[in-house]
Specification:
This protein has one domain. It has two helices and 15 strands. With 246 residues, the chain is mainly β. Strands 1, 2, 7, 8, 9, 12, 13, 14 and 15 form a nine-stranded antiparallel sheet that branches. It has a four-stranded mixed sheet with strand order 4-3-5-6, sandwiched between helices. The chain is globular, with a radius of gyration of 17 Å.
Length: 246
């Protein structure tokens, strides 16, 4: 299902003349998830850490960052404009898997596992030695995307692809709640997400997805994040991503 949040952003497909391709190596690229909220006074330091990854040498090569804004702090008086109940439900699904009784922000997840030592990794998680297989996504118009995945070392079960458009350089002037009076900045914010099945084509898995979004001048840079999971699971097997606009 394609999830459109409150504000959607144009991919400006008409401005691109060359196809765009994002491709991983065979080594596993980590998926870094941050669950955050503008209603949480503890979240800005975590969001700054995530934003600083824009300059990290391992960005896209060793890890792909995404920020899911949750809605369960909205009751404190400030409605996070980027929040979604679906993202809160995603975090609760993780908590259930880990046998946790509650969820919290800021909360980091690394390849499906709770990650509490993120602040000790200035440049993000280090490269992994695990061989996962090559994941490639391509598009000629930034709307219709083709996906190819050649898994290494996994069984014959089904696979799903997950694709998200991320907005960067977002600014909010918060007027209520725990962050009242603060100007908050956000990067790698999930503003649209879709999940599709992958089908076998010979030795590879293939799939496709599309994003049709409307213009919003608040976002100055867009990125795409794509990851593959076993069917019905949350943990990422391989990820890829990159900048869509400059």
């Amino acid at each position: 299902m394609l999830l459109g949040l409150m504000t959607m952003i144009s991919l400006h497909a008409d401005a691109r003349t060359e196809p765009i391709v994002f491709q991983s190596s065979e080594s596993q690229v980590s998926l870094v998830e941050l669950f955050t909220s503008e209603g949480c006074s503890s979240c800005p330091p975590a969001e700054k850490w995530l934003s600083d990854l824009k300059a990290a040498p391992g960005l896209w090569k060793h890890f792909v960052p995404v920020a899911f804004h949750v809605d369960y702090w909205d009751y404190l008086g400030w409605r996070d404009p980027w929040a979604s109940k679906a993202f809160s439900d995603r975090q609760r699904a993780y908590a259930q898997r880990w046998r946790r009784d509650s969820v919290y922000t800021p909360g980091f997840v690394l390849n499906g596992q709770e990650w509490s030592t993120w602040s000790h990794q200035k440049d993000g998680p280090p490269a992994l030695g695990t061989k996962a297989g090559i994941l490639s996504v391509s598009s000629a118009d930034l709307v219709h995307w083709q996906v190819s995945f050649s898994p290494i070392g996994y069984g014959a079960g089904g696979y799903e692809l997950h694709a998200a458009v991320l907005a960067n350089e977002l600014i909010s002037d918060v007027t209520a709640g725990e962050n009242r009076g603060r100007r908050l900045s956000h990067d790698f914010v999930v503003i649209a997400i879709t999940t599709r099945s992958l089908t076998r084509q010979g030795e590879k898995l293939a799939g496709e997805f599309e994003f049709k979004t409307a213009k919003n001048d608040e976002a100055k840079r867009l990125t795409l994040a794509v990851w593959v999971t076993p069917l019905g699971r949350l943990e990422s097997l391989q990820a890829v991503g990159g900048w869509l606009s400059h």
